[in-house]
Structure formats: structure tokens, C-alpha cells
Amino acid sequence: MYHVILDGSGSMTGPGRKSLQLNLARFIRQAMSAQSIKFWHWQSQVTEISPQSLSNDIIEYKNQYQSEAQVLADFTSKQSYEDVFFILSDGFSLEKKCFNSNHRYYWIMVGSEANPNLSITKKSNITSVHPEVLSPLIDEILNVPKSFEKPLVIDSSWLMSGTSKDEW
Amino acid sequence: MTSNFNIPNNLLDEHFQKHILDCELSRGGQGVVFKTKDPHLLIKLCLGEGSDQKLVTDSTQTSTLLDKFMRIGFLPMPSNLPIAMPVANLRDKAGYVMRFITDMEEFTDQFIQGRKAQKDIIKESDKAIPDWLRPFFEDEHQIKKGTGFYHSLEYIHLANSGGTRRRLLALSQCASILSRLHATGLVYVDLSPGNVFISQSHEFEHVWLIDADNMRLDGMKGDNYYTPEYGAPEVVKGQSASSQLSDCHAFSVMCFKLLTNTLPYNGIAIVEDVNDDWANDDSVSQESDKLTLDQKKERGELAYVDDPKDESNRSNSGMPRELVFTPELKKLLLKTLGEGKLAPFKRPSIYHFPKVLAQSADKQVACSNCQMTFFVEKGKCPYCDIKVPLSIKLTSFYGTDISKPFWEFNHELVNSKSCKVPNRLIDAFSYSHNNDEALLVSKETDGITLKFSNDNLSVYSAVVGVEQGGFIRLHGSLHLSHKMLQKGTFLFVENEHKSKLIRIEILGEIM
Predict the structure, then answer these.
(1) Which DSSP state fits B249?
(2) Which tens digits make up the pLDDT trace of B2-55?
(3) Which of A7, B103, B343, B389 has the smallest set of CB atoms within 10 Å of its CB?
(4) Which contacts of A78-83 are long-range, i.e. CB under 8 A and separated by 24 or more positions?
(5) ipTM summary value
(6) What residues in A contact B404, CB-CB < 8 Å?
(7) Nearest to B185 among A17, A55, A160 (CB)
């Protein structure tokens, strides 16, 4: 299961951030349409949002709310250890305690000046990426081969029938 | 030198630098772009809103525009993005100086054939029409007799301007620029073939965007300009501001236009309306009807010509789709121009386009006879029926998992020139570097030679029957004889978590 978490803290009302966050969430939905994926809105609590609401621009950001780090930590800790999280955030509300060591996190850094909390990504299970590399990142996540190690010899299963031409 | 505008040849910018205007480079609804005597600098001068195409002279309007250009400099632009940004405002004139690279021309000039070019070919038709196109041309000439637009002649322009492959690559580069822009939350606003430039020389496919002065953060207020035929319906109707979604619409229209030579909503509804006009002498009322239909088109009320669920506006004109679209590209365009026409949120993000367009380009080879490019899986040139030319096919895989290809690259091999294999074959698809050179392949009399461009890459090669098929570290270039290629040849590019196995195949016959 993949979880896409939209940071709903006040700082996300900064110019262009909400649009970028929604556009990225829609892209993840399009690029991973064959996967089990849920969307969540993280403010003072984490609430599920329907994929359709990404299309209707109904997600609200309220300046008086601060997204709470512990709330996110509690939420992720209840999910299966195999689950993967995409967090679309400018990082102002992210803290070390948001992340637990059992899950894989991808923090998609929304907003040009992201981010004041880069140090939190030093954990091995957190990858922070600029939205520009989200597409190849998803490609890599969905296509993990059994081995990247150099083979010793050619495997006969790699040969194509009809590779060679009569003329050669 | 400065067209029909009453302006001095010398203009001062805000830093008191003097710029000497040269010829006009391009013109749109909002302004005119001039070359200057400095080949790396262009100047844009703004036009007023009326139809008389006069430069802005009103001081209040000039001041407002100069403020707007200044603010563009504060946008969070990605570094090294090939967009000609304002670098200095002009003094006392509504316009700005922008940096550019030389020897570029508009997509319109390179990819869209003008009437004059068609007339020139018709005048020289004995020599200018190749044999494979002659029957098609003569059938059309019998009917049109030198008047109207000849679809057959578009094929000559297509062949002379790099074929479908060059268009696919150019569009992929343009989509990559837009993807980088969108990834920082920006919206371009007024995309059209007149605002996108490509290298004049077919040796290169550098792409640049100009007219950055409407760019802004998505969701912010601003001018909602669009070029007729390219505006998203929600923007045309004034329901929404320009957005990344409207950029995607404009890009898809441009994609459809450049690849098929027709527009995505110019189907039988439009053609029948024009025929009705000719059949009826009541020109005033018919003109009014036509305007209504054009407005309907702009407002998204006509069906997408390739919509399989709605045939009310189908079209038989333009390039046969199976020659220019892969199934993946066809699907993206249908989702944008069909399903997403009136439902912006259903449109695919721009991030999907660069890869799909590059994948399509890399499936094409150029015919040795007619120079048209075609999908190699067709088995022979669909334009002149000649067999697939001698070509290389490189298929890369994730690690050593050959169940799903990572990338497939095809290219014809010719004696005089090396074939550049792009970085996207061996590395994750990057919007900035996917088209960089990864290796060169040269045709030799007894085989091929491969040379990797990055000496720091750890590359291994293996040939069936040589050293028991073992992988050997590659140093310098690799020569593969015909026999080796026939037996089966592989490369392994080592890269911690991104290693790729590459299968090398040869298609076609030795010339």
C-alpha cells in the first residue's frame, strides 16, 4: 500500500504551494494508477481524502492549524510495515519524530526554498527529492529488479530467437 | 530593419546599455521580438491590445508592463532552464532585453509548411516531387490545380525537416522544459509553436522557450493570454485562470498539430460548415455562423477528432495516426484533448509527456530512400515500401531482469556519420540530461564500433562464444564484428542501484 500525505499546515498556503502539491498528488495518482494508493490530509489530525477531491480543489489550509509531528508519527505507526509513504510538504512542519524506522518515506519537497529541516532526511529510510525527479523515482520504486550485480556470463535466456540475420 | 514600427534602432536598457536592433525574429499578439547586433541578446517590445498592432506608448501602461517584467526576475526559476528570461527592462519603452542562443528558429518556421513553400514546390513539381509521392501529388493536383492546400506536399516538408522523429524529440525537449517549470510550481501561460524555438541545424535539437513575461506561480492572479487554437476551454470562457492544466492543454494541441499537420478540433463539423458557406451566397449571415462555430471550437464544444466515443467531429485529414503516435502517446493525447477537454483535472500532468515522446522518437528510424522516419516495428518504410535500413537496436533492462525493458533505442547506421545514443538508455529519465550523449555507434566495413562518452562509467561487454560469454571490463572503444553481433552481444553498465544490462541487435541488411 502506498500513502500520499498532503501537508495541510499554514505554511503551505505560501504562493504556488497548494497548486503544486495538488498537481504532484494527481501525478502520483496517474503514474501509480495500477497500485493500491490512499491519499491523506495532515493537519491537527490525519484524515483520508478521496482521490476525486484532488480534482475539485476542496482541500483547505487553515493558518491557525499547525500540522502536528506526533500526529503523523502515530498515524504511520499504525500502518503495515510494508507500506510506503509519499509526503508532499514544504518541510516546515516535519520533525524527526514524524518518521519511524519501520517504514520507507519519500519526502517530495514542495516549494522553492524548501527546506529548513533537511537534517531529518539523514535517516536511511527517508529520501528527500525535488519534484523534478518524482517521475524517475516512481519508475524506480515500481521496477525493482532482483539484482543489480554484474553477471559473470551471458545467461542463455537473454538471447532473442531470430537475433541474427541470414545476411550476416 | 525594425519592420514597420516607428522606433529608433538604438534602445537603452535600465543599466544604460545600448542595444542596436536588427531584424524581427517573431511576432505574437502581445509583442514583437527583435534580434540585436549582439547575437546573444533579443529585445521584446510590447504591442497594445487593439488589432492595429501598434507598440505601447502610453506611459501608465508602459510603467505597469515594466513592473510586471521586473517581478518575473523574482520567480523561483530552476537553474539553467532554456527559457529566454528578461535580464533588463528597457528605459522608457515597454519592453525588455533577454538572453538567447544563436541559430534557432520557431517551431512554426521549421515544422509547419507555409503556403509560399507549397507554391514553390508546385512550380518546380517536375523536379521537386519524389517518385514515391508522385501518384498522391498528381491525384491531388488534378483536383486542386494549383489552388488550395496540398496534403501531399506536407510529406516533402516533413522529410526535409527531419521527419516525425525530429518533431517527437523537439516536443520531448519542450515538455521537459515545461516539466521543470511545473515542478517548481510555475505556469508558462501562453504556449504555442510561435514561442518555442529549435536549432536550425538538424544536427542538434536544442529547444528554447521565449516570451516568459506571462509566467507566474500556479494559482496566482495574472493575465490569462492564449494563442488562438491553443487556449484551454476553461481559460477561453473565463472560468479559470491559466494554470499548469491549461499549459498541458496547449502543449497537447501543439503536439497534435506538429505530428499530424492538422488541429485536434478541426474535424468534419468545421469542414462541413465551410462547405455550407461556399454553397450559400448569404455571406453576412454565414460569416456570423462560422464565427459561432469557431467560438464553439475554442470553448471546447466540438469533439476531439480522434475521440473513439464521439465521431461527431471526426477527421480524415492529417498524417495517418499510426505513423506518428505510439499507443502510449495516443492515450495521453486522448486523455488531454478528449476526456480532459472540459474536465481539466482529468488531463495528464506534463511530467508524463517527455518520456513518452522520447520513447516514441527512439522507436523510429530514417528511410534510406525517402528520408521519412517511421516506427521500425512496421518492418518496412510505410511511405515508399523500402525495407528497414541497416539499424542498431539497443534494449536496456533494469539490472539483469529482462522481463521488462527499461528503454529501447533504434537508429539507422550510415557510413558517414556516428549515431549518438542518448543518456536515457542507461540512466533514469532526467528532464535535464536525458538527451545528453551516452555513447557513439559507428558503422565500419566489418561491423560496428561503440565508444562510451563518460570514461568514468564501469562498462562490461560479453559476446556469445567469446571467453565463455564472460563479461569483460571495457576500456576505450569496443569493436563488434558482424559475426559477434550475429551470435549475441551484451553490455553491462554498472551503477550501484541503477545498473543496466543492454542487449545489442542489428536490424536490416548490410548495404
Answers:
(1) H
(2) 556 677 788 999 999 999 999 888 888 788 999 999 999 999 999 887 767 788
(3) B103
(4) A79/A1, A79/A3, A79/A103, A80/A1, A82/A1, A83/A1, A83/A2, A83/A3
(5) 0.91
(6) 143
(7) A17
